[in-house]
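ok here's the first one, seq then struct tokens
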Amino acid sequence: MSTLTTKFFEDFLKKYEKDDTIKVEKFEKNCACESEMNFMSVVSRITICGTKNSKEQEWSLIIKQPPTECFFNAQKAFENEIFAYQKIVTTLEEYASKPLRFAKCLFASKELIILEDLSKDGYRNLKKKTMLTLEQIKNVLKELANLHAASISLMIKNPEKFKAISQTVQEISFATPKTDVMVTQEWNLDKAIDLLKSNPEASAILCELKEKTFELQKQSLMGPRKLNVITHGDCWTNNILVNKNNEVQLIDLQSMRTTSIAADLTYFLYTNMDPSVRMKHEKKLLNIYFKELNQNLRKTNVNYQIERKFLDSEMSDFKLFGFMFGMFLLPVFCAKNLKSYSLENTEPEITRRILLFAKEYVQKVKNERINCEKIRHVGPQRL
């Protein structure tokens, strides 16, 4: 990119640090994360050498640039992230009970975003095959609760500003026509159906989803709901930084959208945990989020609290969303070679998890049908 010159960084640092004595002598550009983990932008670390007040100085920055090839609409994603850093985050921080843990944006243009380098404070990306620990999961849920509470506070105190922000963000994953992500989801569904073909009832439940998953997920995300909040939209391991104390920072804000709290929760829990581990701990983890959300709402001085039955209802509505995205990201965590991965030659660990996801989804659908039948049979009596 032509703007990445010593003069550009010297002018930038002089303006940002308000110090005209800064001189940049050279800079070095290196990849800031695993090559197979860059899906929506090119992320680099810039190490700058120079002087400040005639003394040697070194700076480290993170830059993001649009990729030439991408699963998604790269330009829309980049525009979303610029808007997120310049408008959404700065607005929400005014209504949050405590600072939002996002990397600070130092500069943004149509072709370049400059962020603070959080590695200087001990934060790091996890390797792609490393699942988050339970402690890290809990801390991310607390940060999502803080984000969602700030959004609710904004919605109540300044509904016009909340509406303006919500209408500006562009949908990436569920834009029309279908993206490659949605096509891959359908492949995963075919794999799940094949794995459960010996169980006619389970196979039939999954077959009912054929050619419908895109619209069903889109309806959940974009349809009218009792409560909409501004969500992170893409909260998985690749977009989470951790330090040695298991404190977390959230990055990559291209997919922020206004929708149900359950969109962030199902996406995060289903994509970052082994299905068997999540099923064992999900109730306790949601209790942590629920408690943190209401505590933050009280601290923002809004007369609003979330009921637990409402949270459970929203999570139920988004079970398909979690199921489909959980399976979609499995190759990233489990495939030995992501570039050569194919659904025709699925590795044993991926097959195991797809089967767990599918069985759990089928059981939830069966339970709901049983409950609906009980309600229908009882009729109008009070339960």
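and now the second one, same deal
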Amino acid sequence: MSNANAPKCPLRYGEPCTLCQPYVTGPEDCQTVALVMSDPELKAQWAKGYSAWARQRREERKKAHKAAEPTGAPASPPSQGLVTGMPASW
């Protein structure tokens, strides 16, 4: 079973919604999410934490991408013209 369409919890960065509140079908009707998003101070605190989490995630992805790149590979072979082995100037 894939989690591709699993809703994410807006309060627990990057984690799926676990339906932790009774009678909740997802983040859209979660009382805790509504409380945090309606309170200016809580929302500002959440935004600060989210931006720090997102920054860390971007840095981790950059490192992983950099580690996956091949190193020391030649850029491209020199041009040989149409016939293999013949210089391009012929």
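notes on #2: The mean pLDDT is 80. Residues 59 and 65 are 10 Å apart (CA to CA).
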